[in-house]
Each structure stands twice: as C-alpha cells, then as structure tokens.
Write a structure and sequence with these properties.
Pfam families: FCD (PF07729), GntR (PF00392). InterPro entries: AsnC-type_HTH_dom, GntR_C, TF_FadR/GntR_C, Tscrpt_reg_HTH_GntR, WH-like_DNA-bd_sf, WH_DNA-bd_sf. This is GntR family transcriptional regulator. By secondary structure, the protein is mainly alpha-helical. The chain is built from 10 helices and 2 strands; from the N terminus they run αααββααααααα. Strands 1-2 form a two-stranded antiparallel ribbon. A hairpin with a 3-residue loop joins β1 (60-63) and β2. It is elongated, with a radius of gyration of 20 Å.
Length: 217
C-alpha cells in the first residue's frame, strides 16, 4: 500500500472509530463501504482496510450475507455493570442529596430540559451524552470518595461497552426524562434519602430491563 492509500485508510479508520466511540454508530450498525467512501471522498479500498483494522481490534464484526457491522454489546457484562451501578449510584445520590447546592440542582434541571428538547429531533448520541452529564451532576457531590469512585468506574465501563439503550429503543428516552423529573422533584422537596436512593436505582434498572426486552423479545 502506498503512502497516499495508507493515509486515506488512516483517515477512514479514525473517522469510523470516532463515530463508534461517540455512539453515532451504535452496536449492530451496518457499515456500508460505498456510503462511507462517498462521505469521505475516497474509494472503497481504504474504507475496507480501515474496517479490517477495526475488526482486528474487536470493534467491528464481519458476517457473510450481512457484511461489516459495529460489534454487539457483551450482554452479561452490560447487565452486571448496570446492576452494580444501580446500587452504587442510588446510594451516591442519596448521600449527596442533603448538602446538594441549589446551583447544582438547577444545573441538573437545565440538563433535563435539554434532554426533553432532544426528543423532538432525536439523536441517540447527543441524548446519551446529555444523560451522562445529568447523572454526573447529581451524584458528583457525593461526600464519600470511595462510593463516588465506584460510580465513576461503572460509567466508564458503560462507555467502554459503547452501548446506549436509547439507540435501540428510542421510546426509552421519553420515559427516562420523566423519571429524571421524578428524581428532581424528590431533591426539591428534600425527600428522605431512602426514597431518592430507590428512585435512582429503579431508574437504572428500568433501563436495563428495556435493553433486555429488546434483546429477547
């Protein structure tokens, strides 16, 4: 491969990988060489080389009669991560609630308003990013650094799995913003810590249940 072809292959590789990383190309998304080549203004050859590299890294799979697609999520890993996150994030939010600054709560409300606005012209990757910000604002002031570390690890693991239920089941996004509002209302009225913990936990587990229902209709 000459240097020009190699450069084009690298461009295609980074372009595709960036879209896998940010969720634009979600697990199961079919990578059509011709469409990608047209988007990048190159032939299909460097695109094919880029996809082979991504396949070697485990980010893409190739099946006969299906073609190349973004690798699917490891279901058991996702399930275990979500179950653990439901416990630790719920507890982190409950610990954070008593001393949550008003400006932090206002920031969370603003983010949920943005999430609501996203529902009209739904973009899973943007919704997922805003959703992550919403949750981080609420649990970010948790006074227990070890609990906070466990929550951050869970979110980082989800990012590594490159999944978003909102990509598969867009209807979950509508339910999610409603559940966010319920959680915000609990913070607003200084609800007991146990109530807040349960609401956050159920919110996380409902997302998991939605994903599993989609995988096993």
């Amino acid at each position: 491969m000459n240097s020009t072809a190699k450069s084009k292959s690298q461009i295609a590789y980074h372009w595709i990988k960036a879209r896998i990383d940010d969720g634009t190309f979600s697990p199961g998304y079919r990578l059509v060489f011709g469409q990608i080549a047209q988007e990048l203004g190159v032939s299909t050859v460097p695109v094919r080389e880029a996809v082979r590299r991504l396949e070697a890294e485990g980010l893409v799979t190739y099946e006969h009669n299906i073609g190349a697609q973004v690798a699917m999520v490891d279901e058991s890993d996702y399930q275990h991560t979500m179950q653990t996150l439901a416990l630790v994030e719920g507890y982190a939010a409950a610990l954070a609630a008593p001393s949550l600054p008003g400006e932090v709560l206002d920031e969370a409300k603003g983010l949920n308003a943005e999430l609501t606005a996203c529902l009209d012209n739904f973009e899973p990757s943007r919704f997922t990013a805003l959703n992550r910000d919403f949750h981080r604002v609420l649990f970010g002031t948790c006074p227990n650094p070890q609990v906070l570390d466990l929550v951050n690890r869970g979110w980082n693991r989800l990012a590594g799995l490159r999944t978003s239920t909102f990509s598969f089941v867009p209807g979950r996004a509508h339910e999610s913003v409603q559940e966010h509002q319920k959680i915000l209302d609990l913070f607003d009225r200084n609800a007991p810590a146990g109530e807040i913990e349960l609401a956050v936990r159920e919110h996380r587990l409902t997302t998991l249940e939605t994903f599993l229902a989609w995988r096993h209709p």
